[in-house]
Structures are given as C-alpha cells and as structure tokens.
C-alpha cells in the first residue's frame, strides 16, 4: 500500500511537471513513432456498407505502427520515466500476448534497467516468438504455472514479486486494471491515442466521428481512444470483448457482458467468477484479451451507458483479420481483429453516412502461427 | 481483572489472556480449509487445537491467492479440487465449532468470495458458523470500512495485516477498527518466505503496540517455520502465526499416502513446547 501511495503521489506530481511532459513527448515522438496515422479504410467501409445498403466511412487508428508493434509502448515509456524519478533499480511486468512484455523489455533496454517479465506458461507456449523477442532485448521471462497459467496468474506472480522487492522495484502494470493509481495512470498515458485521433478525424472529415470502436481485454487501448471523446456526447463508444467459443459457453472472456461485480488484483470491477467468488478461467484465441477482469473505468462506462460493449467470437475475429488484410493490406493483431469484427453491428446502429474510428491496437505478426493453424496452413517459425 | 466487557469476540481475547496467565505466548496455526479434503481438514483443525494451538486461522481457498507463496498456493489448489471454497470453509468452521466450543477460529481469505456474497450476508454466515474473526488480505479497512462495519454488527473481530512498510497513520487507522489481535507481517513478501533478521521486526512490533495504544495483542507471522523460529519471535511478540510450514507437513504426508493428522499434531506440540519456554529465555 505505501508503494501505491508513493506511486500515486509521484504520478500526480510528475504528470503535471513540464520537464517530465517534455521528456515523455520527445520519447513518444522520436522513439515510439508518434503521432500514429489515421488511415481511411475505404474498401473495408464499402464492404460493410454495401451489405447494409448504406454509406459509411471507416478510419483506422494505426497503433500497429508504433515501435514494438502495439499501443503498449505508450504506457511503458511513461512508467519508465516515473520509475527513474522514483530511483527504482529493477523493473517487473506481467504480460499476456507478450506485447506489453516486449514493450517493457524495450524501455528497460533503452534505460539500462534489469527487467523480469511474468507470463503464463500457456501464453509462453502460444506466443513463443514474443518470448524470444523479450529475451533478445535482455529481459528474463518467468513462465507462471500456477492457476490457469495465463494473464491473471502472471499478474498474481508479478504482485508477489513486487511485495517482496517493493523497495527496489517498479511494477510496470500493462493495462487500466490493478490497484489505484494504475487504472488512472495507464489510462492517461494511453489517452494520447484519443487526443491524436480527435484532431486527425476533424482534419479528415471536418467533424467528430459518430462512433469509436476498440477491443477490450483489460481495456487499455480502448480507454486510450475513448478518453479523447468522453465529453463528446454525440460520439458513441463501443468496446468489443472476446466471446471465445461463444458467450453462452464457458469458454469466453466477456467480462462486461457476462461477469458480475467483484474484486480482483486490487480493483473493484466486473469479473468472471462463480457464485462462491472463485475467478473463472477466461478463454480467447487472443492471449491479450484472455483476462477475467476489466478496468474499473470500463465498468463505470458500461453502467452509466456512456459506452456499449459487444463481444466477437474467435471465429469472427479470425475472419475479420483476413477481411482487413485483404481489403486494406493491414494484418491486425488478433486482439484488434475483435474490434474490426464488431464493425457491422456498430454500423447498423449509426445514421447513413456515419464515420467510425477503429483502434488497430497492434499488428498481427505475433499471431501468424495461431492464424495459420486455424486457416489450415503450415508455417515454420 | 477488570469488569469492562470485551468489545468484540471473547474467544480470541480469552485465548491470549489464557496463554498470558500460563506464562507463555499465543500459538496461532493457519491451515487451508479443505486441504486435502473436507473431512481430513476438519480432523487436522481439531488435532491442531488438541495439540496446543490457541487460535486457528482457517484459510478460505481462493483461485488467485496473490499474497501467498508456493506452499499455500498448492494447498489452495488441492482444496479447490476437493470442492473447497467459501461455502465449504463456512461448513468446516461450523463442524469444528460443534466438536470444539472453545477454540477461536479466524477466517483468513481474500476479498472476492466475501464481496460476491455481500458483507452483511457473509458476516451473518460467519457468525452462524461459529467464527470469531475475519482476516481479509486485500480489503484495506481504511479504504473501505464496509466489511469492518458488517463484522462489528455481528460481534466478529476484524484482524488487520500490518506490513513493515505500513505508515504510522495506516497502523493507527487499521488498529482503530481491529479486534482480536493485530497481525504484523514479519517481512515484505509472501507467505512461506525466509524469516528475516528479527531486530527490525522486534522494534516494529513495539512501535505498533504504541501506535495502537496497547489496545490489542500483536501477533507476528510470515516465514515462521520451526519451533526455534517461533521461540525467537515469541521473545518480542504476543503471538506467533505458523502457516506454510504446517501446510508443507500436510502436503508431504498426502504425497506419501499417509494420514497427515499425526505428523501435524507432533509439529504443533513442538511449536507449543517452544512457546512455553519463551518467557523463560533471556
């Protein structure tokens, strides 16, 4: 708790400090590669609009073009600057798909800090390419075998490490969940996505979009986009959770759709759990969405009705991944493919001629093995 | 003797008072409920009480025990596989209470199983099951007093965890709503870790006593694995909590196909003997 209080105070101080902001902005520009483009996806829009007999404009926020291949680096550069000011000598993080682990390992290499990553043993298996990337960057990767051996268990193990080494270590939590100040801090560090998108869409269309669409696991990329439009009541916000094999089966990760209020990892939010309070195993083809909790701000947006949450199945995500690849020449991460999969259902609710921003939170290279397997192809890695 | 009524559970206060009157420190034993199964767990808890444990901490199995080390994680996995959980832990508490009306029982667990029941319903169920107190690892009383209020309404003690890093303000806030005893965590880390140098813990326990106005006894836990450890800690604490070491004894017996009850009973008796000598040591 004192570590959280220390972190909260540091964040409140430095997030308003001009020197800190200038250094963060410089890293975002020169290292992460920001601003990322907003790409109009005309062929994808046509594909969806034609089937519905309407006009539609779709814009892709290209977080897949960030250094390391996803939005995760936005948060990591901010937290590493904070860790430096807190004089922490060692960095730990959890990772699901490996994208946050790679981003953390990357900033640790840049700042010369030792880095240890906790990753569920199941995820180590299905994201072996990212495991090697982290190792190449100099990080030590621990395969966590406890529990369901996925993201939530990696977070448990990272927390155990943190309480043990709290004096020397900063925990770079990768999503808008976990104890305060993480949901606030990670949300603010990711809000650069929404700020840029807001300016870019106005430049492209002369007005705000009708809707924003993003995938939700813990919810950091969605929160980053949503934060740019929370006060614009005319902009509808849609999150897409992972429906896995279907939300009426026991194999899904639709926490906001099917969960109940609970407490997990120091956060009171929706969780997937049974009547006894035991956390359920989440399932998704996408390791980054495979989390039985969700950021508390998403729970709030759901309950107030400011945002709506849908779910897309593994199969729908795979098809959306192929659709985006063939319409636009962009292969999204399987996480981001869930957002694309939600597009037809979102478009139906919008007026004719509406414009939509989809957050392409990451690129699909890491998922080639999984995607190839499902499409019946063989690739050697 | 004073005639002032104990504000909360009399069983826990009584156990500390009894140990003190016998010139020794209080032995608090943690076991994970339903490890390795309901009936064996019931026998283990009763055997621990018989062998000299003054207070039982009944661990409520949870899927995500992020404050626990490998030994208790494994115990929780065994317990969950055997149908353990909050429901079974309450039944187990009741079964222990029926067989032993004296032994204080503290339910030790995580927030979510309490939260999904609702604090009022949980507190009533815990009271009904004969529990005396509750320790919830991830429910800071000073951030959300709802649990403390619900337990107080049932006359149950809320036992807070106090860490080496806890600030004086937080120690005071925790002590203000606490009952039974204060649980000082010997180290920054998880259950079952190596016991650290005790000089700092000793000084901190004294500080916690002062900050809490000496209102409640202070027990120390985390990392106390042997009778010698227990004796060393008892030189400065009012009570000693042993958990992972007891759980490992059960695990070993179960893996070897033996009934774990005799081995646990022997271990608890050794701990108790070490504490009996504790006040005589220099």
Defining traits:
heterodimer; A: 381 residues; alpha/beta; Rossmann fold; 2 domains; six-stranded mixed β-sheet; 17 helices; 12 strands; 46% helix; globular; B: 282 residues; TIM Barrel; nine-stranded parallel β-sheet; 48% helix; 13% strand; disordered N terminus
In short:
The complex is a heterodimer of chains A (381) and B (282). With 381 residues, chain A is an alpha/beta fold.
Helices and strands in order:
The complex is a heterodimer of chains A (381) and B (282).
Chain A: H1 2-14, H2 18-32, E1 38-40, H3 42-52, E2 56-62, H4 72-85, E3 90-95, H5 99-111, E4 115-120, H6 121-126, H7 128-136, E5 140-144, H8 151-164, E6 169-171, H9 182-190, H10 192-205, E7 211-215, H11 220-226, E8 236-244, H12 255-258, E9 260-264, E10 267-271, H13 296-304, E11 307-313, H14 314-328, H15 334-341, H16 343-348, E12 354-360, H17 368-374
Parallel strand pairs in A: 2-12, 3-4, 3-6, 4-5, 7-8, 7-12, 8-11
Antiparallel strand pairs in A: 1-2, 9-10
Helix pairs in contact in A: 2-4, 3-14, 4-5, 4-9, 5-7, 9-11, 10-11, 14-15
Chain B: H1 10-21, E1 26-32, H2 38-51, E2 55-59, H3 70-81, H4 86-99, E3 105-109, H5 111-117, H6 119-128, E4 133-136, H7 146-153, E5 157-158, E6 161-162, H8 168-176, E7 182-185, H9 198-211, E8 218-221, H10 227-234, E9 239-242, H11 244-255, H12 261-276
Parallel strand pairs in B: 1-2, 1-9, 2-3, 3-4, 4-5, 6-7, 7-8, 8-9
């Amino acid at each position: 708790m004192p570590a959280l209080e220390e972190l909260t105070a540091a964040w409140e101080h430095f997030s308003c400090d001009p020197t800190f902001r200038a250094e963060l902005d410089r890293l975002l520009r020169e290292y992460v590669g920001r601003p990322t483009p907003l790409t109009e996806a005309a062929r994808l829009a046509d594909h969806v609009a034609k089937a519905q007999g309407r006009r539609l404009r779709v814009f892709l926020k290209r977080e897949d073009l960030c250094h390391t291949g996803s939005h995760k680096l936005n948060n990591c550069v901010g937290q590493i600057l904070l860790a430096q000011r807190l004089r922490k000598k060692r960095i730990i993080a959890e990772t699901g798909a490996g994208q946050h682990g790679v981003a953390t390992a990357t900033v640790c290499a840049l700042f010369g800090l030792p880095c240890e990553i906790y990753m569920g043993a199941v995820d180590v298996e299905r994201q072996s390419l990212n495991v090697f990337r982290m190792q190449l960057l100099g990080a030590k990767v621990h395969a966590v075998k406890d529990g369901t051996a996925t993201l939530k268990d990696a977070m448990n193990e990272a927390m155990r490490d943190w309480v043990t080494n709290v004096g020397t270590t900063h925990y770079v939590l990768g999503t808008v969940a976990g104890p305060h100040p993480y949901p606030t801090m990670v949300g603010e560090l990711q809000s650069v996505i929404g700020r840029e998108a807001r300016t870019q869409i106005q430049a492209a269309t002369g007005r705000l979009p009708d809707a924003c669409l993003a995938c939700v696991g813990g919810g950091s990329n969605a929160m980053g986009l949503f934060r740019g439009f929370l006060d614009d009541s005319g902009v509808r916000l849609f999150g897409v959770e992972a429906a896995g094999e279907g939300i009426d089966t026991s194999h899904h990760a639709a926490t906001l759709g099917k969960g109940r209020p609970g407490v997990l990892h120091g956060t009171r939010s929706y969780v997937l759990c049974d009547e006894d309070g035991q956390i359920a195993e989440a399932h998704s083809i996408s390791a980054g969405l495979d989390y039985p909790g969700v950021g508390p701000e998403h729970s709030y947006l759901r309950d107030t009705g400011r945002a709506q949450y849908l779910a897309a199945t593994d199969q729908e995500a795979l098809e959306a991944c192929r659709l985006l690849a063939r319409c636009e020449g962009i292969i999204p991460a399987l996480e981001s493919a869930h957002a694309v999969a939600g597009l037809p259902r979102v478009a139906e609710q919008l007026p004719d001629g509406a414009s939509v921003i989809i957050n392409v939170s990451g690129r699909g290279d890491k998922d080639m093995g999984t995607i190839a397997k499902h499409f019946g192809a063989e690739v050697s890695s | 003797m004073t005639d002032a009524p104990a504000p909360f559970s009399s069983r826990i206060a009584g156990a500390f008072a009894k140990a003190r009157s016998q010139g020794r420190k209080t032995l608090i034993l943690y076991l994970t409920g339903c490890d390795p199964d309901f009936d064996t767990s019931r026998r283990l808890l009763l055997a621990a009480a018989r062998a000299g444990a003054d207070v039982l901490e009944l661990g409520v199995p949870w899927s995500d025990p992020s404050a626990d080390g490998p030994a208790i994680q494994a115990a929780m996995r065994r317990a969950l596989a055997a149908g353990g959980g909050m429901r079974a832990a309450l039944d187990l508490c009741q079964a222990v209470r029926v067989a032993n009306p004296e032994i204080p029982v503290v339910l030790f667990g995580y927030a979510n199983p309490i939260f999904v029941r609702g604090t009022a319903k949980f507190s009533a169920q815990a009271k009904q099951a004969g529990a005396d107190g509750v320790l919830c690892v991830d429910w800071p009383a000073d951030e959300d007093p709802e649990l403390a209020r619900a337990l107080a309404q049932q006359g149950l003690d809320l036992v807070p965890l106090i860490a080496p890093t806890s600030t004086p303000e937080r120690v005071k806030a925790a002590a203000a709503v606490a009952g039974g005893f204060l649980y000082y965590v010997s180290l920054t880390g998880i259950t079952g870790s190596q016991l650290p140098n005790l000089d700092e813990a000793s000084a901190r326990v004294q500080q916690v006593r002062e900050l809490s106005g000496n209102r409640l006894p202070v027990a120390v836990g985390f990392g106390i694995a042997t009778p010698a450890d227990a004796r060393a800690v008892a030189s400065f604490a009012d009570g000693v909590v042993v958990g992972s070491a007891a759980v490992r004894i059960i695990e070993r017996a179960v893996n070897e196909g033996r009934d774990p009850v005799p081995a646990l009973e022997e271990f608890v008796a050794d701990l108790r003997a070490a504490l009996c000598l504790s006040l005589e040591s220099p």
